[in-house]
Amino acid sequence: MDKYDALKQYFGHTQFRPGQERLIDAILSGRDVLGVMPTGGGKSVCYQIPALLLPGLTLVVSPLISLMKDQVSALRENGVSAALLNSSLSPEDFQRTAREIGRGVYRLVYVAPERLDDPRFLALLRGRAVSLLAVDEAHCISQWGQDFRPSYLKIADFARRLPRRPVVAAFTATATRQVREDIAARLELRDPECLVTGFDRPNLYFAVRRPADKTAAALQFVRERRDKSGVIYCATRAKVEQVCAALQRSGIPATRYHAGLEDEERRANQTAFQLDQSPVMVATNAFGMGIDKSNISYVLHYNMPKSLEAYYQEAGRAGRDGAPAECVLLFSQGDVRTARYLIDSGGENEDLTEEERELIRRRDLARLDAMVGLCKTSGCLRRYLLDYFGQASPERCGNCGNCRAPAVETDVTREAQMVLSCVKRVRDRLGYYVGPALVIRVLRGGGDRRVRELGLDELSTYGLLRALSRDRVQALVDHLEQEGFLTVERAHGTLRLTQRAGEVLFHGERVTMLCPAAPPEGGTKGRRRRAPAAQAAPDDGLLSALKALRVRLAREAGIPAYIIFSNATLADMAAKRPRTPEEFQNVSGVGQVKAARYGQVFLEEIASYIGGET
After folding, report:
1. Number of neighbouring beta carbons within 10 Å of residue 216
2. What is the pLDDT of residues 433-472, one digit of tens each?
3. CATH code of the domain containing 61
């Protein structure tokens, strides 16, 4: 068997995705690798194919029990002998699995990094040849990464203590150059084949919204996607409870996940989500990396994350099967204060010096600034993200909220002068700067009590922009900040003038920005701007029937539906309409084991549907 045979037989594909073959070839030649591939880009295949072809055992270090379970279940469904060894096993199952590892029953074994420090585990492996040590979510080893885990620092020492050092393969979805260099150094990779395939996920639609009422916006968003599975991320446990309760009161089958729940409830809630019994998960970032549910159609961020790395990783859990998916962030200025508080009150890490902890805090604040920049930019959201990760991209992607909003380049110099002048006059009146929200209220006039108490309704700039909506004035303030005329002071969140502001106020510098185009005649009032619709399936009726069959089979087997077949595989099945077992195996994502296990029942469903058409 070669790599192509393994790919078709076990995973049902006839060609590799970009970067996969190069990394697989390097591993098979005995070379260490470092692969940075986007979520859903097929990282696991890069070590699973070599595991099937190499003579010894492949160990996979993974940070989460839930991820291990999903990976092992999927491999077993594909006919691959795999196991996990972690604290979720009963003592009897743990001992049985350990004995089977010693007898060479498995090709792949998934372990948590903490297991590597157990002398009994090392002794168990002394009689087995470990050919490959794969490190998933490898950015966890870097103190510069957003998910640093000290337990990952044990991996290099573990590899040295094995009778023969295996090939070491490290994989992650989000890593800046500094993090990649740190991964290679701390894992002691030897002349690694380093490959960054790119960070772009063309199937994901990105949007940032500023609703006046986030809970109402979240409810509307989910109601309009009742037949979809999605994740809603919140910054705090309290907010998870609030949002989940609101969804449940509205009749939406939602569940919750955060570190304050008992382990048993967290496991039960995650299982309900994986099995689509509760298709909506409301969670903190404790519902973390490596969630391997391929049919997540949207990720809604109720609060802004603390970094672009965290945001892109969390948003990337949508659309893992390649189908179009939505990533929408609900932003408010309060999110910035919450994120800054979480950074400043972060727990002490005893593995780091005080100087290193302060360095990381400053780094986290800089990352927060970049995250806020995404929320405030009027430019292409995808380009902003890709620029941050060092990947060249077009000026407009055509598939984000900013690109799809009709806009024209507009001279806003006069309005900009009003904003800058207002910031200055408020400062002169009070003797100190204030936050952007108060400046906007002054500019828009109205009967705000706080404005009157401070005497700001007596300023010449009071009400100058009352004809503009709050969102339009906010967008103008954000644009002036992006262009360097204003800055938000970190510690107190106050809006301040920069030296460049004088060029606009006194020296004639012009300011332009992209503004929403006027609606066509007849208007669009009352219409909600939607994300691009998913590409129509070749036959929505047949696809729905196949999905219903998949749900029934999954419930009977007690496994997540996507492990049987992904949405992308069902869409290809609906398009090709196979009639024979041979044609069924030509469907993308159908391997030999799954064809033998599920082929007949799916072929009967397709035949029944086609017969009903005639």
Report:
1. 11
2. 999 999 999 999 977 889 999 999 999 999 999 999 888 8
3. 3.40.50.300
Question: H helices of 316-435, where?
Answer: 333-344, 354-376, 381-388, 401-404, 413-430
Beta-ladder partners of 254:
280
- Looking at the DSSP bridge assignments, the partners of residue 300 are 232, 328
The Cα–Cα gap between 308 and 384 comes to 10
Q: Torsions phi, psi of 329, nearest 5?
A: -115, 125
pTM value? 0.74
| Residue-number span of the structural domain to which 455 is assigned | 407-516
Query: 486 - beta bridge partners?
Result: 497
Residue 74 tokens read as: 């999927």
The answer for residues whose C-beta is within 8 angstroms of residue 256's C-beta and 6 or more apart is 240, 241, 244, 269, 281, 282, 283
Euclidean distance between CA atoms 168 and 131, whole angstroms: 9
Residues 205, 532: Cα–Cα separation, whole Å: 8
Grouping H, G, I as helix, E, B as strand and the rest as coil, residue 119 is helix
Question: Quick check: 371 and 305 in contact, CB under 8 A?
Answer: yes
Higher pLDDT: 380 or 42? It is 380
Q: Tokens for 20?
A: 């996969």
**Residue 536 clears pLDDT 50, i.e. is over it:** no
Residue 441 and residue 338 in contact, taking contact as beta carbons nearer than 8 Å: no
Do residues 163 and 126 touch, judged by C-beta distance below 8 A?
A: yes
Q: Decide if pLDDT at 491 tops 80.
A: no
| Tally of domains within the chain | 4
C-alpha span between 41 and 603 (Å, rounded)? 29
On average, the pLDDT of the chain sits at: 88
One-letter amino acid for residue 87 of the chain: S
Task: Mark which of 348, 372, 404 sits at the end of a domain.
Answer: 404
